[in-house]
Structures are given as C-alpha cells and as structure tokens.
Amino acid sequence: MSRPKVIIVDDDRDTREMLTLALELEGFEVSQAANGLRLISAMHVDRPDVILLDVMMSWIDGFELCRAIKKNAGFTDIPVIFISARKSVEDERAGMEAGAIDYFPKPLDMDRLIARIREILDQRAAGLATPA
C-alpha cells in the first residue's frame, strides 16, 4: 500500500518544513506549496489525500482557496484541514463554511493533528470499501 499523500500549503517556509518533518516521520508522503497557485498545479501532477491549508497567505487567502478547491469536481472530495494563527470562533466557522473538514490553531498540537489526519484517512478508506 502506498503512503498517504499530504500537501502543506503555507507561505511560511519554517512552518512547511516543520510539518513536513513531523509528517514524514509518521510515514506520510509530503509535498509543499508556498501559495494557492502552486497548490493547484501540484494537485494536477500528484493528487494529495489530505490538504493542510494556512488561512493567511499572499495572492489568495485559505478560505477562498478552499472554496475554489471544493468547486472543482476533480478535487471536491479531498479533505482540507486548516492550520492557522487565526484562532477565533468566527475564523473556525469561516473555515468550515468554506468546506474544510477541520481547523487547527497554531501553534499546532502535532499529535492531535496527526491523529486527525489518520482518522480522516481511515474513514475515507472504510467508506470506499463499502458497497454504494
């Protein structure tokens, strides 16, 4: 079985590197995108199983990018998890309304984040294994 693919979309290189290291140690295949434009091109080349998406980025914010992903028929089923320094209830609500499956405030609780990614992947695998 191939390793689950996670793409990290954050304009902060240190955050991308830290997340990449942590996720690779947990057995995930990780790619990175510094912005939404890079994400869209990367998704066409190598479809991720999960997207970790920052809210505050240049060019397009994470909420807009998530809405765009969810409008694309080829990508609408890919789970999006927001990772953001914005911690308000309103931000979390906006993230969920944009189509995300979860929202994690920074600084990240890595154990909780990794457990949630595994839970999402397990649920999807179970859903795909059952007859329609």
TrEMBL record:
Q: Quote the protein name from its UniProt record.
A: Response regulatory domain-containing protein
Q: Which residues carry this modification: 4-aspartylphosphate?
A: 54
Q: Where is the Response regulatory domain?
A: 5-121
What PROSITE patterns does its record include?
RESPONSE_REGULATORY
Which domain of life, per UniProt? Answer: Bacteria
Tell me if Cytoplasm is a UniProt keyword of this record.
Answer: no
What's a Pfam family this protein contains? Response_reg
On whether Phosphoprotein is a keyword of this UniProt record, the answer is yes
Q: Which UniProt keywords apply?
A: DNA-binding, Phosphoprotein, Transcription, Transcription regulation, Two-component regulatory system
Supply the InterPro entries for this chain. Answer: CheY-like_superfamily, Sig_transdc_resp-reg_receiver, WalR-like
